[in-house]
Design brief:
With 815 residues, this protein is of the alpha+beta class. The chain is built from 25 helices and 29 strands. Strands 16, 17, 20, 21, 22, 23, 24, 25 and 26 form a 9-stranded mixed sheet that branches. The longest helix is centred in the first third of the chain and has 39 residues. The N terminus and C terminus are likely disordered. This is Cation-transporting P-type ATPase N-terminal domain-containing protein. It comes from Rotaria magnacalcarata. GO terms for molecular function: ATP binding; ATP hydrolysis activity; metal ion binding; P-type calcium transporter activity. Keywords: ATP-binding, Calcium, Calcium transport, Copper, Copper transport, Ion transport, Magnesium, Membrane, Metal-binding, Nucleotide-binding, Translocase, Transmembrane, Transmembrane helix, Transport. Its main location: membrane.
Amino acid sequence: MPSRKKSSSAKTPASGDPSLFGLTVGQLKTLMESRGKELIEKLNSPEYNGTQGLLDKLKVDGTKGLDSNNEQDLEQRRAVFGKNEIPPKPMKSFISLCWDALHDMLLQILLVCAIISIGLSFYKPPSTGHAEEEPNLEWVEGVAILVAVLVVVFVTAFNDWRKERQFRGLQSKIEKDQQASVVRDNQIQQIPVSDLVVGDLCFVKYGDLLPADGVLVQSSDLKIDESSLTGETDLIKKSEADDAGLLSGTHVMEGSARMVVLGVGLNSQVGNIMSLLGATASVHPAADKKTKPVKSKGKDLVKTAKSDLSKQSLQIEDDVKLKIASSISEKQPNEDRPKSVKISTDVVDISLYEKNRDNKEHAVNGTVELAEVPDDDDVVPNESKHKSVLQSKLSNLALYIGYIGMSAATLTLICLIVRYCITTYLINKQKPSAVDIGYFISFLIQGITVVVVSVPEGLPLAVTLALAYAVRKMMTDNNLVRHLDACETMGNASTICSDKTGTLTTNRMTVVQSFVTGKLSEQIPPPEEVNQELLPLLFEAISVNTNYTSKIEASTPEEGGLPKQIGNKTECALLDLVQKWGGSYDQIRQDTPEEKLVKVYTFNSARKMMSTIIQRNDGFRVYTKGASEMVLTKCKSILAENNQLKQLNDAEKNRLTHDVIETMASNGLRTICVAYKHLGTEVQNWDDDDKIINDLTCIAIVGIEDPVRKEVPGAIEQCQRAGVVVRMVTGDNIMTARSIATKCGIIKPNDDFLVLEGKEFNKRIRDASGKISQKKLDEVWPNLRVLARSSPQDKYNLVNGIVESHATEHREVVA
């Protein structure tokens, strides 16, 4: 293998002694590169000796975990296997930012003019008489231009430097707030994600973002969403027998598990990708069989067989909320177009989705080639600042002014010389002398002065100060702008491709409709209007039949706002209903702690319901909640008016489905049915879920939605009035997406705009060979308003297609 340069100390500090453990970083990385059956075979090979052998080699107790008091052992693991942090690229110095700011063409022209003006101020033209000489003030013009340039440079550089510091501080705070559940000292502890080490036993559950790479030790109905890495929307079932590998950056969608951490920081899956993308302090990933440096023209050409990184680039920063494809009012070449912009809810982060044409990612058939990167100590991708629209226009203006100024100066010089020659040689009949040279130099200086004066030194200063003022104003709205030209780029946005959850909606599932004791309420009624005898039963059914990790916490005075929903959002909506109706799920859970639950049938996509058996004084009871259409088929009765049991036959079930469930669903609500059943006092075969979860009694049906933010409809209306088209791109189903889009005002009832699912969108934009056709995309995107069931790749294809589009001369939206 070719020799590598020294990498960051975060990977393998010199103090680490790999011989202390039975496995090296390279062996663990090799293991985590495998998938499915291949990983199981490799894990059971003599090199690793199965999961238990892996634990033994890493000196981990499979029950008690690591010793949190043995700080020396933890530090040794960090030294050998690395820390669970990805070192960011070093921040540019203030001098470097000043140098970047000086690359503006207009500023360069002004600098040249300032130097020429100051230099010519020391030249004295030949005296034409005995008049008293005036003081030499010609240098003032040059110094004034120089001061204007320095002000522009320092304001731009200082703003970029300060905002970068603020942004990095915000990122650091977010990272410190992330917690992981681990087993240490035979106890479950919450530790910062950055404190995870190789060998930790980490608990993961529904909704968690995996903080590191690892292998399963124990699992229960575990399914993982790996779309952020592969673009595959199907959930991947994980188990110790079939596929035991868990990768950082993926989400747990079902079940729970315990894994042993094998890859952290730059040695994890996310670390490898971030290194390849050049988003870390070092772009050279750790030793990897699939990534080898190959010398090419004095540079390292990094090639990788990883899946399409263009998908990952849309997900590499957590919770990207808004993507804007900006356009300009006049047709420009590809390299001068403004690029895509991405914005989070509270932080504005302007990024270039397309990199420089000579240093971009090419994805062909799942293989990615990262173009050449410099082979020096500060190996980072090409960070040449891409010109914004205003910068391009100012550069063009400076060129035009320069051409006009040069033309005027040349014409002035010619006129002065011709006039002098006619007057001196033809009219006055004088002979050429050395004095004439002084006059000619004086004429040249006057021509140069015309050029200097024609350059508008105040223009870049005015633009920079205006943008700096805009940045300050945006700070008052909690928008952190990292670069001055971001405000100007935002002003050129013509299309907003917005996610749904958390951007247009509050990301707080809430019960908004209910069907209780035979009464359908389109708004949640106050507790006094609900049957009081029913409430204790409903409260217990919700409180014990939800994951005990799901809870609602009051926000701190510093945070303000609504209470925080922790855990499963749907369950939090039901727990919120308990609180609104005067119940206390905490008290019920204290009376029935988790260890006293007889049996829990966890939710999965096949059952679409969750059931829990508890033991009461009057015997055993099972509570069930889940998708209404599924739970209702298991019910034989329902609590009707006055809390009386009413039998449910097929006709009555059909009526409830049509009048209640479909009515709620048509409004974009997710319907949940809550039911129960007495099981008597005798212990039964609790594993026979078909027998247990049957002949239930329906307690209530509720409609849940993620409400639209109050400010969203007005904001979208303002965008539409300003000519900015808002599109919604979401992974949710098409009915919910259409409903939310209608509530937001993205589509109107009588509009004929397109509402497509990801599969249909892909069919329409690809040609016969299966490749994306820009021509076909141009036929789709102008009328597309909602893209549902979309993958990260679909989102990328849409945004990239809009940026590259030539649908109209000015790339306007054709409505």
